[in-house]
Amino acid sequence: MTLSARLIRHLAVFGIFKEISLNTFANTAASSTLIDNPEFRAHLDLVMHEGRAAIPFFPEIVSKRYSDAVPPPSAFFLYSNGQLFYDWLHSPSQTDRNANFNIAMRGMAHTEGLAFLPAGKSVPPFSDYTFHALPANKLIVDVGGGIGSLPTILLPSLPDHSFIIQDLEPVVNQAVEGASLSMKLWMDQGRIRFLVQDCFTPQPSELDGAVFILKNMIHNYPDSRALAILSNLRKTNPYKLLVIDRLVIPQLKSDNNQSLTVPHGGTGSQRAATFYDLVMASLHGGKNRTLEDWQKLLEQGGFKLEKIYPLRASTGQAVIEASCS
């Protein structure tokens, strides 16, 4: 038996393949997913490539016992000889890895997007956050929105709203060049516009008073960098700030009275929240945050945390609604 066949037999033990006769194997639902779902395949590729590359350097970071006051570099920073993850990803030599990353993020957005649907007026009880209640005359700005996965999910149920999707130039170029038919239609209608924007620089004055969304991006950064993003947004006097991110809920029961609580006691299993907390630490030097962390961070950035909306169909995510303080 060849080494490849022995490897397949080992995977069959875990249900990835199945042995239908002696030394003859067939696909299962698991392996068929890898064949038929390019977004899932890209996400697995991301975990096994960038994630696996950084892991050997993680013990070195842990052993130095950095404090919150002095956030540690990421394990990936050590792997890449001093490049931040997104700088490395957007470098000319990593074009293929950048394309894979964006496909993976699109897949994750659609998976998590089950939590947003339906968002229309006819069935609001089934939507964890009422995006349709946002004023139609307010632009919705998706900061670090990548190739536009979130608006793609929401716009079919928001016929009167418009989005601006901000990201760095390589991402915007890829989004425009690879736009789907529906995305091209929305762009032609003026309902979606891509804008090259560094989130660490001031926002254009034309966006003053807009609704700003930060979906799965603040977790990439330690508090000091996250505050720089929030401070730039605060200068625009947003109508509303929506942070969509995983919420870490400590497993210790507390009798402390809190002005803010997480409805339903949270969002189900904390495995994804704590797992991605370590992923953020490894790749970016960032972290997932508790309710108290978010409250403090937003307050320091000039915002008041108003309410938490757990996204029950997601992997521990919530819409954290904030207003200008």
TrEMBL record:
Pfam families documented for this protein: Methyltransf_2
GO BP of this protein: methylation
Domain called O-methyltransferase C-terminal: residue spans: 135-304
Organism: Lentinula detonsa
PROSITE patterns referenced in this protein's UniProt entry, alphabetically: SAM_OMT_II (PS51683)
UniProt GO MF annotations: O-methyltransferase activity
Family annotation (InterPro entries): COMT-like (IPR016461), COMT_C (IPR001077), SAM-dependent_MTases_sf (IPR029063)
Protein name: O-methyltransferase
UniProt-annotated catalytic positions: 219 (proton acceptor)
Keywords of the record: Methyltransferase, S-adenosyl-L-methionine, Transferase
